[in-house]
Automatic annotation (TrEMBL):
Pfam families: Abhydrolase_6. The keyword Protein transport does not apply. Residues 25-250 form the AB hydrolase-1 domain. Keywords: Hydrolase. This is Alpha/beta hydrolase. Signal peptide: none annotated. The keyword Glycoprotein does not apply. It comes from Cupriavidus malaysiensis. InterPro entries: AB_hydrolase_1, AB_hydrolase_fold, AB_hydrolase_sf. Coiled coil: none annotated.
Length: 264
């Protein structure tokens, strides 16, 4: 596909494509994620809920085209992923209203959750619903402190080697994410003005022990989009699909299937 005026490669993995007619979940990963870093969770969820799935690595991550090191992302990088890169990918893959794969559900974790919210608010007729897990709608001090700690870990521990197993260019993936989140200009980043544009069903999930965000993140979604259902998970950090996979799977499966049934 093409993005920013040039051809790029996007890593994709289809799950259970033979289940035509069942909801399609598009999995949007966290700031340092990729197809492989989801491990087996997307397949586990799709099998539990009888869904189809599409797992992607965004530009700069996984086996997708790496970000050139001299390319600096702006504070609007998630908006560009949602409003430019994702529509371009969906066009290539024939996803959307009246197309072969139909309107998707977006399942986004962390930065991927933010991208899902921006896409759904910007292209309301194009989505069936959204599940966001530990999303960001504003920048909190807690988030910045944890991202500063991640920078130290990348420089001082084996984090770089671990990420290199999942990304063609670990430095491209890490610094593209870390530099912009720690840019002072990013402190003003705020999705709340967009959220009233959400028209689809929304399930927003947050762990009570999330080291990257407080409950203000998902409660803010509900304040601006009253249809949002909140799920707050005890003894759970920033990655509910790893910390509380059974509870998350049960809740997401029940929610999507209930919403799907109500639309018939």
């Amino acid at each position: 596909m093409r993005f920013d005026g040039r051809p790029i490669r996007i890593e994709t993995q289809w799950l259970r494509p033979e289940r035509a007619g069942r909801p399609l979940l598009v999995f949007l990963h966290e700031g340092l994620g990729s197809v492989s870093l989801w491990r087996n969770y997307p397949r586990r969820l799709c099998e539990a809920g009888d869904f189809r799935g599409l797992v992607i690595s965004r530009y700069g991550y996984g086996r997708s085209t790496p970000r050139p090191h001299e390319e600096k992302w702006g504070v609007d990088f998630m908006h560009r992923q949602a409003r430019e890169a994702l529509p371009a990918l969906f066009d290539v893959l024939d996803i959307g209203p009246g197309r072969a794969h139909g309107r998707p559900w977006l399942f986004g974790h962390s930065d991927g959750g933010s991208i899902a919210l921006i896409y759904a608010a910007s292209f309301a007729p194009a989505v069936e619903g959204v599940v966001v897990v530990a999303p960001h709608i504003l920048v909190e001090d807690l988030s910045v402190r944890s991202i500063e700690q991640a920078r130290r870990a990348y420089l001082e521990t084996d984090l770089r080697d671990k990420l290199a197993r999942h990304h063609d260019d670990a430095d491209s993936a890490f610094w593209g994410w870390n530099d912009i989140w720690l840019d002072p200009a990013f402190r003003a980043w705020d999705l709340r003005p967009l959220l009233s544009g959400l028209r689809c069903p929304v399930l927003a999930v947050q762990g009570e022990d999330d080291e990257y965000g407080t409950m203000a993140q998902i409660e803010g979604i509900h304040q601006h989009a009253s249809q949002t259902v909140l799920l707050k998970l005890p003894r759970c950090g920033h990655s509910p699909h790893r910390d509380q996979p059974e509870q998350l799977t049960a809740a997401v499966s029940a929610y999507i299937n209930a919403e799907t049934s109500s639309l018939k």
